[in-house]
Amino acid sequence: MSVQVNLAELSKVYPKTETPSVDRVSLSIEAGSLFALLGPSGCGKTTTLKMIAGLLDPTAGEITFDGRSVVRIPPERRNAAMVFQKPLLFPHMTIGENVAFGLRMKHVERGVIRERVGKMLDLVRLPGVENRRPGELSGGQEQRVSLARALVTSPAVLLLDEPLSQLDANLRIEMRDLIRQIQAELGVTTIFVTHDQEEAVMLADRIALMLDGRLMQVDTPASFYERPSSIAVARFFGARNFIPGRVSGSRFQSSVAEFEVAHPAPPDGTILTIRQEAIALGPGPNAFTATVRRSMYLGTMLRVWVDTGGVEVEFTAAPGDQFPEGSEVTLRFPPEHVWVVPAAEPDA
Amino acid sequence: MSADSLALVARKADRPRRRLRDGLGFGTLMLALALPLVPVAVWSISATWFFPDVVPTRFSTRSWEYVLSPDAKVIPAFLTSLTIALAVSVIAGLIGLSAGRALGLHSFRGKRIVYFLVLAPEIVPPLTVAMGNQVAFIKLGLADTILGVILVQLVPTIPYVTLVMSAVYSNYDLNYEDQARVLGASPLRAFFHVTLPAVFPGLVVAALFAFLIAWSEYIMTLLIGGGVVKTLPLLLFSFATSDLSIASALCLLCILPAIVILVLSSRYLSGGRANIGGFGRL
Questions:
Q1: Which of A48, A240, B199, B215 is the most buried (most CB within 10 A)?
Q2: What ipTM does this complex have?
Q3: Which among B175, B183, B275 is the nearest to A92, CB-wise?
């Protein structure tokens, strides 16, 4: 029932704009997987999602479900249900009627509708709310009803447009776990859009990062932290350390030190990056000394900025550690955590 | 005692006072609306009533007997009025529904000019419109017909309906339609199942305006209808200068449908059931 979704050179140029909102995006989304389209606001991720849903026509490119093109199929016959940022429950209908909407559009028998609506509300852990009205539920409950309303039609693809962004922190975690659990249970191919990298990492099997309408990297969550394809990708995932230099063999020469690199580095790699939490204290391979500039206590950790050879390096330490300003400290970059990226953004 | 229960006690003590205030307000309003109708009602059942008598010296059911008799042709005039007003409110409603959607939901070049053009019929005196239309309608064979009267009365009613509907639509989230589409509704079904119920209270209010304008319209009906299309206001005017007693009875008949329709649509007017708030930014 779930389908594989492919995008090929998909582009969207809005009238009267020069730069495309979505620029030649090619993606392959495995059947039954949970896939995240990640990016800052305005990067074209929602536009991409709406093109998959059929709510927007692509300017160019192809969308296929299980190899069949759906570009000319209107949204109501695409079988791709979407949940929007807001619950958008139809205000003149009860909760039950809302969930039943998709089945009514398919002319499903009344008895069958009632049974499936009940089952779906059980699944989103809201049993017995059929006769309530939209205003009587909380925001989180309404969003769950919205999810049930999309799932009741047994869609081939489930599209979620920032479904958690309007919820407060606790509800967000609850809803996130619910989505993960239901998706695993039903095995429906799910594509969700988010600007929150943490959310994408916790939910998705695979993530596509979009910046300025272009696909930057499609990978597993861990790869975005360990093997970002560019500075922009690394920055988006919270990396702070970028040291200029040049690659020679398996070594990286910089004003800080000469670093050993465990992963193969691209020959045009001129920036070394390492996660602030991967930096270790004390001597060893890839060690150097630096001067402490300032530190910040964050409860669960201590963030420390040091200066070495005119380059600022940031690392995290245990919250109880002391790093007096101006003191010398020995740091090391474990070779397996060192990653080298090209300096310039492609076309940027 | 907790703050909550204190607040409750305070609110309870406030209740009789608030009820009195609301009652007084409502009473004054009803009085202001109903008081002018009292002399009209008295006139309609009086035979002789001269200054300085406070009440008529003689009462009679003469005018009511006349008004309800077939000779007076009041019933046909009532039905003509009703036909015209209903047709105008339905047609203006349909046009305003689509025009209001375009103006309320979409931004396009020259939108301000379109807004001005929509309002233009309200700026031009109706007499001017009717005079110009009369010449054209005579050529088209629409003069002296009910259809002609309906068409000319769309001129002052469409702007009202369009403006009300554009305000209603500007408060409407078009994502509701997208949501319906991805759940399997065709554009038409998305409109009828989702959008129409949402804008319906506003539409009822707008169509009610159109009905009331068309119902009491006099000058356009007189010019285009040429006296052949006899509506209730036309009949009323012919008695207003000759027989005040009959004119008063007709007046009361004129008010009747307005009151009936107001009562029928009151739940939409109050906004209590309105899904997106009847008037929006109007």
A1: A48
A2: 0.86
A3: B275
**Residue pLDDT, tens place only, B4-35:** 666 666 666 677 788 888 889 888 988 888 88
CB pair distance less than 8 Å for B173 and A92: no
Q: Total structural domains in chain A?
A: 2
Q: Are residues A98 and A17 in the same domain?
A: yes
pTM of the model: 0.81
CATH architecture of the domain with range B70-269: Orthogonal Bundle (1.10)
- A269/chain B closest Cα distance in angstroms: 45
pLDDT digits (tens, 9 = 90+) for A213-246: 999 999 999 999 989 999 999 999 999 999 998 8
List strand residue ranges (DSSP E) for chain A, in order: 5-12, 22-29, 34-38, 60-65, 68-69, 80-83, 157-161, 189-194, 206-211, 214-219, 241-248, 251-254, 258-260, 269-274, 280-281, 287-297, 302-308, 311-317, 328-332, 339-342
Residue contact B189–A105, C-beta within 8 A? yes
CATH of the domain at A253: 2.40.50.100
Give the CA angle between residues A215, A216, A221 to the nearest 5°.
Answer: 105
For B173, nearest residue in chain A (alpha carbons): A88
The verdict on A83 and A170 lying in the same domain is yes
A86 CB neighbours in chain B (<8 A) are 173, 175
Domain range for A49: 5-226
**CATH code (residue A125):** 3.40.50.300
